[in-house]
Amino acid sequence: MKTTTRVCVIGGGVVGCSVLYHLTKLGWSDVMLLERSELTSGSTWHAAGGFHTLNGDTNMAALQGYTIKLYKELEAITGMSCGLHHVGGITLADNADRFDMLLAERAKHRYMGLETEIVGPEEIAQLAPIVNTDGILGALYDPLDGHLDPSGTTHAYARAARMGGATIETHNMVHETNQRLDGTWDVVTDKGTIHAEHVVNAGGLWAREVGAMAGVYLPLHPMEHQYIVTDDISEIHERSKEHPHVMDPAGESYLRQEGRGLCIGFYEQPCRPWAVDGTPWTFGHELLPDDFDKIADSIDFAYKRFPVLERAGVKSVIHGPFTFAPDGNPLVGPVPGMRGYWSACGVMAGFSQGGGVGLMLAQWMTQGECERDVTAMDVARFGDWISPGYTRPKVIENYQKRFSVSYPNEELPAARPNRTTPMYDIFDTMGAVWGHQFGLEVVNYFAEPDEPRYETPSFRRSNAFAATAREVAAVRNGVGINEVHNFGKYRITGAAARGWLDRIMAGRIPAPGRMSLTPMLSPKGRVIGDFTVSCLSDTEFRLTASYGSQAYHMRWFLQNLQDGVAVENLSDCLNGFQIAGPRARDVLAACTRDDVQAMKFMDVRRMTVGQTDCIVQRVSYTGDLGYEIFCDPMAQRQLWHTLWQAGQPHGMRPFGMRAMMSLRLDRFFGSWLSEFSPDYTPAETGLDRFIAWTKPADFIGRAAAEAERAMPPARTLVAFEVETEDADVHGYEPVWIGGTVQGFCTSGGFSHYAGKSIALALIPRTQVKPGLTAEIEILGRLCPAHLLTESLFDADGTRMRG
Known about the structure:
Blueprint: E1 4-10, H1 14-25, E2 31-34, E3 50-51, H2 58-78, E4 89-93, H3 96-112, E5 117-119, H4 121-127, E6 138-142, E7 146-147, H5 150-163, E8 167-169, E9 174-179, E10 185-189, E11 192-201, H6 207-213, E12 221-230, H7 234-237, E13 245-248, E14 253-258, E15 261-266, H8 296-305, E16 314-324, E17 331-334, E18 341-345, H9 350-367, H10 388-400, H11 424-429, E19 432-437, E20 440-446, H12 465-477, E21 480-483, E22 487-493, H13 497-504, E23 515-521, E24 527-537, E25 540-546, H14 550-559, E26 566-569, E27 575-580, H15 584-589, E28 604-609, E29 612-617, E30 626-631, H16 636-647, E31 653-654, H17 657-666, H18 682-685, H19 702-710, E32 715-722, E33 734-737, E34 740-751, E35 756-764, E36 773-778, E37 781-788, H20 798-801
Parallel strand pairs: 1-2, 1-11, 2-8, 4-13, 11-18, 21-31
Antiparallel strand pairs: 3-7, 4-6, 5-6, 9-10, 10-11, 12-15, 12-16, 13-14, 14-15, 17-18, 19-20, 21-27, 22-25, 22-26, 23-24, 24-25, 27-30, 28-29, 29-30, 32-35, 32-37, 33-34, 33-36, 34-35, 36-37
């Protein structure tokens, strides 16, 4: 066994082997994989082997499409069979909400190049004759769906990796992973110690235990999962072709042909977590005892949906554990705070996602970034606040909702409230309807005493509509107040702070007492941050950005840190309020002896507000006259009482995130991970207007941004007014121009100020002309859309800047 390697992958399941193969494919041949037993030991060997493209996150769906198409490439490279069965698949809808979800997914697929289609009950009966279509409204048909041989596929990945120069050591258990002072790793195994520049945790069922060796907690938990293979069924084996897959969300089941019979698995409600206190190292090719009681209700439902099952005998029962993250997506990428330590685990749907996971991680390692936004599976989407006590109930919830309708406005209740600010009880008493971000409770809106304290999940306008309208009106006509806790906040200090920020940020770094807006770019010129920079002095700066991306952003800051600079994450150490609206200045002036009138737009200053020492910034995401007022959380309640009392003569009302997202549409302001994300560039989204092209600093991504400035990209961000009745754009709806799909929506919603449905979209730059009309597909309906060239509110910025 060799004792040095560039990359050491721990875990020989389908994900570990995919990572190994993709590293060799991208040119890194000095790589090795360690497996304590045989390849496929763990979840891989007992997987049902199904694959599909359907996923609520479009980038995950695209990666699943890549994975499926990769299998024929593997067969061609290795000469081995993956046991591919491209039989197609249908996902059934038995109610209007589920059908809305399928319509929304089909719309997304149009610009993704996925050839799915909506089919009715008669077509379902022809495609999948064993389905009882009583009560079925329709289905989504995907010709790419199918299944394969899990073992053969994993070994094909392994052979392809070996052909690229990789080494695989089986029957070699890892006992320790110890980091050296230079950041490299010693991996201690049964056969000796391996020195590696990078370690990849692809431990699957043992990923928690492997992570613990390096002092890393990965939020994962295994769940028991059961599927059944039947004896021969004449309606199956007498067909001239293989029966397609059927996903029946109402019955929490998936079904496919297995030989001359059927295989059906369940995501049952009375589910059970496995190995709560750790996965035994002795577990491998064993199965768990059969447990028909747990799936009794699911089986009864399946008999009604697939009547042939009631007459079929049971050939075998597969009951084994699979590992899930709290939201069901993989945990992939560089672990924050750990140099050279990478995660590739929590890949529950390994044969749908394993290829895409391997490709993204290999790109990340070899090129420094991925070709697409991988936020949905980035290990940094969970912070250091997460614990096993939080992970387990969220994993159970995710398992139970595996086949549930996924609504754009849904707030899942498990493990909540978890993290709250000092304002939680005050806002709760005022009727707050809560959402959450990065584990933190955030007010979505405030309900009146006679209104429900729960937002009904829907693809259409919800029961939050009237409350949101009230809050928008309060801001535009008087003054509103909300909390600023869901901003990521950072302090940058040191003699080299300004120079460092000039390199990290593409925009202008302001003078003392001033603020600026700036994108942060990747080396390839992709948008990886949308920041406000505030200069308190030449050696002290404050940054604000998305709260949910703080682990992602801190990882980037620390990777690029230099001497003479200190970076502190103040996200939970600094809180306060935003006040916005035409009376905001009057409220602030009543609370301080400072000259508020003299404070210009984009000024920042230290100020005593009531009894509280604060940092006040004149800026507002509402697009209105407004101020962000930051303070020590210990003083936040005092600050609240000061502002609230001063605001009453001016009609102050609290407002939540639903109103905030409506207000920002009035000015066509983009939102992080909607308009601004690593999928897009500054020139595509309009952020290029904030780039400081004349500054001498060679900021990260400058060459790519300059190239795009010289040759503008093909697409650009625009705003549309949409003619629609009860449903607005949420994101990824296709834009039809001249009868063809030429773009897609990034986000949208209803402007309560203007009384209009608004969509932000990326379309071809050549199509952007005054008077452009288009159609936007919302829930299967083509809605007329008209290009907007002027903001709906304060178009000349008089109120915001005055």
